[in-house]
Amino acid sequence: MLELKGIKKDYLAGENTVHALKGIDLRFRRNEFVSILGPSGCGKTTMLNIIGGLDQYTEGDLVINGRSTKDFKDRDWDTYRNHSIGFVFQSYNLIPHQTVLQNVELALTLSVVSKSERKQRAKKALEDVGLGSQLSKKPSEMSGGQMQRVAIARALVNNPDIILADEPTGALDTETSIQVMEILKEISKDRLIVMVTHNPELAEQYSSRIIRILDGKLTDDSKPLTEAEYQKELAADKAEITAGKKLKKPSMSFGTSFSLSLKNLFTKKGRTMLTSFAGSIGIIGIALVLSISQGFNTYINTIQEETLSSYPLTIQKTNTDFSALMETFMGSATSDSEHDNNAVYKKSAIYDMMDALNNMETSENDLKSFKSYIETQRKDSESDLHKAVNGVQYSYDLDLLVYTKNVDNTIIYSDTEELMQEMVMEHMGVDMQAMTNASNSVFGENATSMMSSMGMGGSSMNLWQELLPGDNGKPINDLLKKQYDVVYGSWPNSYDEIVLVLDENNELDDMTLYALGLEPKEDVDNIMEAAVNGKELKNDNKSWSYEDICNMDFRTVLNSDCYRYDESTGLYTDLRDTDAGLQYLYDNGLKLKVTGIIRPNEDTSAPMLSGSIAYTSDLTKYVIEHSKESDAITAQKDSPNTDIFTGLPFKDSSSELTDADKQAAFLEYINDLDDSGKAQAYVQMMSIPTEEQLNASVQQAMQGMTRADMESAMTQGMAQQMSMSESDIQSYLASMSDDEIKDTFTQMMQQQVKTQYAQQVQEQMASMQPAELIGALTQTLPTLSAEQCALYYDEMIQFSDSTYDDNLKALGDVDLDDPASINLYAATFEDKDVIEDAISDYNEGKDEMSQIQYTDYVGLMMSSVTKIINTITYVLIAFVAISLIVSSIMIGVITLISVQERTKEIGILRAIGASKRDVSSMFNAETIIIGFTSGLLGIVVTYLLCIPINLLVHHLTGINNLSAILPVPAAIILIAISVLLTLIAGFIPSKSAAKKDPVVALRSE
Q1: What CA–CA distance (Å, rounded) separates 497 from 499?
Q2: What per-residue confidence (pLDDT) applies to 495?
Q3: What is the DSSP letter of 566?
Q4: Binning pLDDT at 50, 70 and 90, where does residue 247 land?
Q5: CA distance to 103, 246, 365, 366, 622, per residue, from 849 (Å)
Q6: How far apart are CA 137 and CA 102, in angstroms?
Q7: Coil, strand or helix at 464
Q8: N or C: which end of the chain has fewer CB within 10 A?
């Protein structure tokens, strides 16, 4: 039973209060057709809206089936409207973008009815009102009567207890009005119908009860409930409450919200597309910036990997710290003082450079222990070093001796550096070996090699180069296979297999071709002569087939095999010094097979290999392991103080010996001589004047001499030694000071006295027998002081020009566990930082002498430009994001316009039980659709724009692997950002829609 108890309703109209209802008391039967009559403005519709839960009463109580509504919340009113009320409006209030069937289904959708049941019940309701054949039509395609019957079907579909009809025939003609009234009368047999009308004739004809209202008060009721009927209705209400029937709260699914919004957007296709395109502009801007940034970063990462493959982190056994020197050379001279800019002043440059050269620090690294550490870390798949290192290469102090026969059938040493030195000496008279030795003496051999390979000391002349080995025993690292294409044959898989390395144009330089035996010496001589004489040289355009290259014959010879013991001298001689010996070595050398030809692929900008012939690390291991069996190495190790090639003693550390050390070494040297040697040694000893004898003789010779006398004597001596004219020498001497003249003349006299003294002693001792000389030596040795022995040690003993270590190196004696250098390859600068951190971890807790020292040449010369690119990207994104925000605001404004356009739809939804949240979610769904469309459109346009952008970039830069590309994850994130921003932008409009008064919304047009 529906009961109104003292219902009052007040409205504020400016500063005045309008009393729409003034205490209405009414009781309704469960099944009756009630018509409410009264003039306009008397409160009929207001009372109908209060009964329907669309409007709230000011005072009183609305009792529904025995339950007071004073404590009803919004969700309770929504449930009441959805399950208990069916509205039939004068203006039909159908949603225009939905079909007839969808309009009727909508109330069931809120009731969470399954799709199949929903469709079945909606069809049944439409069939009951005679519209079973009009299911797919839109409201705009129907007549007024048909639309009103659709409204009745919508009101009936959820089987409500009450049908509220507000002027249901007000917009219909007489015939159609009768049809509608007949339907309502039939419905009233099993439920309550409350109709507001201005037509008393229809009310009298079809209604079972007529209520009249005037000025907000009840004036007449044709059939009020009797007390008995009232008690009966109360009993029915109690029985229903006792049964405990609980109604589900209505809820609009996201699918329904999405469908309503999508269909609404389709009714405004033009505006929707323009809105989506406007919203996509910001996405396009950000996506293009990200695409170009990603392209640059990908290109930079490739360059980084290739750069780091050419310049790995190298740790030398003997490390020379070049950081200060390089920073000085890379920097500029510094100002030493502050001054006015009114003249030319000096600033320091030479001193800084010389000081940096003078203070270069050299340290020894224990690479044997560090190699063990690296291998342990690399075996641990969880270690940072394992993940960061792309490859490891160990280098040794080993000269790989490879020989081949050239086209002249002459055996040549296949080494471009040595052959170039010979050619330059032959044609230009320049000793390049002496220049290399001078560089090594200043910078160190390893450092000079490193600087050369990095382009700091000229181009690399290395012909033979070891390939970077792969992991788990693979002969070739994947990084090499990524950078190089095999144009013929295959990669080497064995220690005796090699590959030829071409440049990107399939070319080799002429010096390399000569070293490979493909160019005759005559042609190379012609090239050198043409270059020296400045003549133009014609290009002969020679070429060789891949088969010819792979048929070349190379032989590697073990270093130790080059030396054989000579029984006549007791020394080891080099077989390479004779043609027969070189032929023997060549014939018995290890044959190397060319298995393939490789070339840098077109995407490689910094290829790893600088040599032209590459071999595997297995060849290095083979040479080292087989050299251990050498007799020459054994002999040298058995005689660590004597050079097995010359028989002379080593002078490894003479500069650090004290006089006592030299005395002991000199006496040991004399004791080891045979009788003939001892006799000669005594004569040599006596031929060396003491310091006192030398000074006395020089002073006596110079006594009484004037500067003129000295100049005259010096002129004669210098003319003989220097082949200069006397006038030039006299002019030179005249420019010298008196002290300089005296010092120079004294040195000349000392040398002359030494020579004369030696001649006199040797003449005097020429008549002595060897036995007498030996006896004299035996008597003299005990009388010599440490200073005298040190003098004889320096003057008499002839030392080997080599050292013990140099001899072992020449013989190829190398320990595989103790490399000369370790090259650590990283893919990125971040990985290089990880490797440096691993070295720091290794050094932690060790004393300074045991720590690994190295110079990061790449780090000194290069810095990662990734940070710069990222910074530029962030700045550009920040600027472009402004347009994205503006687009989002625009979408918010358009959503607000959509709210205004769909105000009546909001009222309809609220009337059939939709909650505020349902209304809000409907508009949120609309913004999500627009945001998704904007994002998707922006991504599609970006991908399309990347095509001409990449073509333009490739054309302008010539870099084919520099391409703008938007990663799929970034595209998905950008679409999500677009959806999120539009959702945020539509938050305020959706909330305003939810807050709209349903009564006011239903009145809007």
Answers
A1: 7
A2: 93
A3: E
A4: low
A5: 88, 86, 8, 9, 33
A6: 10
A7: strand
A8: C
| DSSP-H helix ranges across 193-268 | 200-206, 227-243, 254-266
Query: Angle, nearest 10°, between helix axes 144-156 and 100-110?
Result: 20
**Token code pair at residue 515:** 């070293």
Q: In what order do the strands lie in the sheet with 67-68?
A: 16-28, 2-13, 59-64, 67-68
571-574 vs 563-566, strand pairing mode = antiparallel
Q: Hey, what are 651's tokens?
A: 């002078």
Contact (CB, 8 A) for 184 and 206: yes
∠ CA 352-353-359, nearest 5°, is 85
List 403's β-bridge partners, or say none: 413, 555
Question: What span, in angstroms and rounded, lies between the C-alpha atoms of 701 and 753?
Answer: 9
Interacting residues of 302 by C-beta distance below 8 A, sequence separation 6+: 603, 605, 961
Q: Could you tell me whether strands 389-395 and 821-826 are parallel, antiparallel, or unpaired per DSSP bridges?
A: antiparallel
- Residue 684, exposed/middle/buried by CB under 10 A (0-12, 13-18, 19+)? middle
Displacement of CA 418 from its chain's centroid (Å): 42
How is residue 520 annotated by DSSP? -
Q: Residue 468: left (phi > 0), alpha (psi -120 to 50), or beta?
A: beta
- At position 263, the amino acid (one-letter code) is K
Report the percentage of the chain scoring pLDDT > 90: 19
CA atoms of 284 and 272, how far apart (whole Å):
18
320 DSSP β-pair partners? 362
Q: What angle do CA 325, 329, 331 make, to 5 degrees?
A: 115
pTM above 0.70, yes or no: no
DSSP annotation of 224 reads P
- For residue 258, CA distances in Å to 93, 508, 921, 928 come to 21, 68, 9, 9
Structure confidence at residue 41 as a pLDDT band (50, 70, 90): confident
3-state secondary structure of 343: coil
Give the CA dihedral 412, 416, 420, 423, nearest 10 degrees: 20
Which residues does 421 contact at the CB level (< 8 Å), separation at least 6? 431, 432, 433
Interior/surface letters 98-130, b for 16+ CB within 10 angstroms, e for the rest: bbbbbbbbbbbbbbebeeeebbebbbebbebbe
CB atoms within 10 A of CB 730: 15
Sequence-distant (≥ 6) Cβ neighbours of residue 510 within 8 angstroms:
519, 523, 524, 527
How is residue 383 annotated by DSSP? S
Task: Find the farthest-apart pair of alpha carbons in the chain and give their distance in angstroms, rounded.
Answer: 173
983, 928 Cβ separation under 8 angstroms: yes
What's the chain's average pLDDT? 83
Cα–Cα nearest to 263, from 992, 926, 901, 912: 926
